[in-house]
Amino acid sequence: MKYTELDDSEEFYRKVEYYNKTKTEQLSYHYKEILKLLGEDPDREGLVKTPYRVAKAMQFMTRGYHENPEEILRSALFKEDYRQMVIVKNIEIYSMCEHHMLPFIGQAHVAYIPNGYITGLSKIARVVEAFSRRLQVQERLTNDIKNCIQNTLNPLGVAVVIEAQHMCMMMRGVQKQNSVTTTSDFSGAFEKLATREEFIRLISNKFH
Question: What stretches of the chain adopt beta strand conformation (E)?
Fold first, then answer.
């Protein structure tokens, strides 16, 4: 976990980091060996601390394994008689493709129609974050988010659309820098064409 706190007396931001010491040491050892296998000298000045930095970075980028998305939603559950569409769009996604362990980056658009209960808006974004900060494929990530909201809130329907660019397509292999992958998943009321089209129209509108 990574936290930042303000030290008022010194008037600067002091970074405070918490990592599993054993995991960090083990990961550092293996990343040092990887550098050797790549033909690098892990003891040269620029790389001496690289295995340690990468070990911490990987724990940060996969911290979603230690988060419970269902509990995130339940932590801010409110009874409310509202049965119209609730949309949280343009949620930034930073995930790691499980096939090459390279990033894919994009946005998620999530909607649900409450059925007696709503959840805090930030919790929707936190659910997206919890699932994306794991080794993923975009298709499963889309499905994970939808299922979590559907199973936890029991709404009248859930809609999820993700648009992302994949470094495994941009930096290697086919090397197509402008390609964008779009995935979607719908449940309940959003399986009806009219409701789904309204959702697509609303997420396509620019915010002014």
Answer: 2-7, 12-17, 77-79, 86-97, 103-113, 117-119, 135-136, 157-166, 181-188
Helices 138-153 and 121-132 pack at an angle, to 10 degrees, of 140
pTM of the model: 0.89
CA distances from 142 to 14, 121, 162, 171, 176 (A): 36, 18, 7, 23, 23
| pLDDT for residue 162 is more than 70 | yes
Residue type, position 120, single letter? G
Q: Which tokens go with 78? A: 């409110």
Residues with active-site annotation: 97-100, 138, 166, 168
Residue-level pLDDT at 205: 85
pLDDT digits (tens, 9 = 90+) for 38-59: 999 999 999 999 999 999 999 9
Give the Cα separation of 43 and 60 in Å (integer).
24
Backbone angles phi, psi at 17, to 5 degrees: -120, 140
Burial class (CB in 10 A: 0-12, 13-18, 19+), 207: exposed
How many Å from the N-terminal Cα to the C-terminal Cα in the chain? 35
